[in-house]
């Protein structure tokens, strides 16, 4: 049997004639790596990230009370998270100043992403709690997801795969350099 034939076999050994696009980096997310084992700030990646330098931490912008960081497992290129420095889970626990800065960084992120990539729209949102789909429910974070016409093609819908055109470190550098206050 040729390598090509082997690549086209389904789990039962039959020929399904489908190509495979492997995304092994997603296993870290599936396994829950970097997720806090508990709700403590000592286990939290969003508490650890601000202690790193911007480049290795993928931090795009730092505010006084919150920061913008690239999502390590993005839905689309330029997918940012806006997080308060303070370890808290619920949006209603933010101070007025924290809520205002999260909103300001979100607006700045939208302006910047639109300027550098021509995003046609955005999905903005917070998933509050495990039941609502929060990947890391212990630390509040707002998603800023750029969208383009036709970006929901067969890859995410059928292939359960996201296509990213550049390395996260390159995207971080581009957005950090072009940040619009």
Q: Can you walk through the features of this model?
A:
- This protein has 181 residues and is of the alpha+beta class.
- The chain has a single domain, classed as HIT-like (HIT family, subunit A, 2-Layer Sandwich).
- Helices cover 30% and strands 14% of the residues.
- The chain is built from seven helices and five strands, in the order ααααβββαββαα.
- It has a five-stranded antiparallel β-sheet.
- A hairpin with a 3-residue loop joins β1 and β2.
- The chain starts with a helix and ends with a helix.
- The N terminus is likely disordered.
Task: Classify the fold: give the CATH topology.
Answer: HIT family, subunit A
Q: What is the CATH homology-level superfamily? A: HIT-like
* Global mean pLDDT: 80
Q: For the largest beta sheet, what order do the strands appear in spatially?
A: 1-2-3-5-4
Query: How many domains would you count in the coordinates?
Result: 1
What is the distance, rounded to the nearest whole angstrom, between the alpha carbons of the first and last residues? 59 Å
In total, how many beta strands? 5
Order of helices and strands: HHHHEEEHEEHH
Poorly predicted spans:
1-10
Provide the gyration radius in Å: 19 Å
| CATH 2nd-level architecture | 2-Layer Sandwich
In DSSP terms, counting alpha (H) and pi (I) runs of 4 or more, how many helices?
7
Q: How much strand?
A: 5-15%
- Describe the global form: globular
Strand count, sense and barrel status of the largest sheet are:
5 strands, antiparallel
State the name of the first-level CATH class: Alpha Beta
Proportion of residues in helical segments: 25-40%
Task: Determine the structural class based on helices, strands and strand pairing.
Answer: alpha+beta
């Amino acid at each position: 049997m040729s390598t090509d034939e082997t690549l086209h076999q389904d789990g039962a050994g039959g020929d399904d004639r489908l190509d495979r696009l492997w995304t092994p980096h997603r296993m870290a997310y599936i396994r829950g790596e970097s997720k806090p084992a508990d709700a403590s700030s000592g286990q939290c990646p969003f508490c650890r990230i601000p202690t790193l330098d911007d480049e290795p931490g993928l931090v795009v912008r730092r505010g006084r009370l919150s920061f913008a960081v690239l999502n390590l497992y993005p839905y689309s290129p330029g997918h940012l998270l806006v997080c308060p420095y303070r370890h808290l889970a619920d949006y209603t626990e933010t101070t007025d100043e924290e809520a205002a800065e999260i909103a300001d960084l979100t607006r700045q992120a939208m302006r910047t992403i639109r300027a550098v990539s021509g995003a046609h729209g955005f999905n903005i949102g917070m998933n509050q709690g495990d039941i609502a789909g929060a990947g890391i429910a212990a630390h509040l974070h707002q998603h800023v997801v750029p969208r383009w016409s036709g970006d929901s093609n067969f890859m995410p819908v059928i292939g359960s795969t996201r296509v990213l055109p550049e390395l996260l470190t390159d995207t971080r550098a581009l957005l950090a350099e072009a940040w619009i206050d």
